[in-house]
Amino acid sequence: MRYVTDKNRGISAILAFMIIPISGFAMDVYVPSFPSMVQDLHIPISSVRLTMTIFLISYGVSQLFVGSISDSYGRYRLCLWSLVAFIITNIVIVLTKSIEVIFVMRAVQGVVISIIMVSKRSLFIDAFTGDKQKHYTSLLSVVWSSAPVIAPFLGGYLQHSFEWRANFYFLAIYAFVMLLLELRYSGETLKEMKAFHLSSVADTYKKMIGTPDFAYGIVVLGLSYSMAIIFGMSAPFLIENVFHYSAVATGYAALSSGVALLLGGMLSKYLIARNFMAKLTIANFVQGAFAVAMFITAGMFNSIFPIMFFVVALHFLMGFIYNIYFTYCLTRFPENAGISGGITSGGGYIVTSIFSYAIASSININSQRTFAISYMILIVLIGVMLLFLRRYLNKPKPVNTLMQEA
C-alpha cells in the first residue's frame, strides 16, 4: 500500500481540501431543484425535504462509527471504495423515478460520504503537528464552507438549463475525477493501525461524550448548522412559489448565504487567538439581536431582499461560531483523531437533522416572520448551551484532571 510521505504530503493535503466540499455538494447542489422534483416525481414537499434529512441522519450516525473503523483499518482504501459507491448511487438516482429508491440511495450516500470526510479530516491530524496542524484544521471548515457557496449557485443553473437530474450527474463526475486523482497521488496516512476492540472503542466514546465541553460543542455545532439547513429546505419554495422567481434566483440566494458562512469562518480563523468563550458569547448575542430585528420589521416589507439581508447577517455569525467550536472539538482528542472527528461531525449532523426537520415541518416558513421565529428558537437554544459551557469552564477542576490534561 502506498503511504503519504514527505514527498507527497503536500499534494495529498491539496487533494484532501479538494474533496472536503463533497459533503456540502451532496447536500446542497440540488436545493434549487426541490420544487421541480416535487412536480416531476409527483411527491409532496415533505418527501423532497426528507431526501435531505435522510442523508443528514445517515451521514451523522455513520460518522459515530466510521472514526473508530478508520483508526483500526486505515483511511485510504475506505475512501477509495466510498468514492466508487458514491458514483454508483448518483447514477441510480439519475435513472430512477421512484422516491423510495432515492431515499435508499441518499441513505447510502450519507454512509459513504461520512467515510470520505472522516478519512480526509484525519489526514491533517495524522500528517501534521503543532501550529501547522492547527492551521490546517482551522482551514478545514473554511474550505468545507465553499460548498454552500458554490453548490446551490451551480445547482440553480443546472436546474434552469437542464433538469434536477443534472445535479446528480455533476456529483458523479466530481467523485470520479477525485477517485482518479486519489489513485494517482494520495496514500495511507495512518502509520500504526489500532486493534479494533469493541470494549476499548466504547470506553473511548464514553470518555469523549462524557467530556462536557466536547459534548456541548456537538450540540452547538448541530444547532448552528440547522440554520443553514432550514434555509435550504424552505428558501426554494419561498423564492420560487411565493415570490415567483426562477431556480437561478434560489441559487443566488443560496450563494449569498454561503458567502456569509464562508466569511464568518474566515473571521474566526483570523481571531483564533482571542478568548474562546468571549467570541462565542458575543456572536450569539449579536445573532439574537439580528433575529429579533428580523421579526419586528417583518410587517414593513413584502420582498425577498430584506429577508436575505437578515439571512446573510445571521449565517455570517453562524459560520463564525461553527468554525470556532469545530476547530476546538476536532483537536480536543488528538490521540483518537478519527473517532473525535467522527463524533464531532456526526453528532453535530444528528442534532442538525432532528432540529432542522422538526422546525421546517412544524413551522410553515413562508415569510420573513416565520424565518425569524425559526432562527430565534435555534439562537436561544445555542445561548442555553453556552451558559452550560461557561459554567463548566469556570468550575474548579480536580488536581488529577489538571494533571491528565497537562
UniProtKB/TrEMBL annotation:
InterPro entries: MFS, MFS_dom, MFS_trans_sf. The chain crosses the membrane at residues 12-31, 43-66, 78-95, 101-118, 139-158, 164-183, 214-239, 245-264, 276-298, 304-325, 337-360, 372-389. It is found in: Membrane. The keyword Transmembrane helix applies. Pfam families: MFS_1. Keywords: Membrane, Transmembrane, Transmembrane helix, Transport. PANTHER family: MAJOR FACILITATOR SUPERFAMILY, POLYAMINE TRANSPORTER 2-RELATED. This is MFS transporter. The lineage of its organism: Bacteria, Pseudomonadati, Bacteroidota, Sphingobacteriia, Sphingobacteriales.
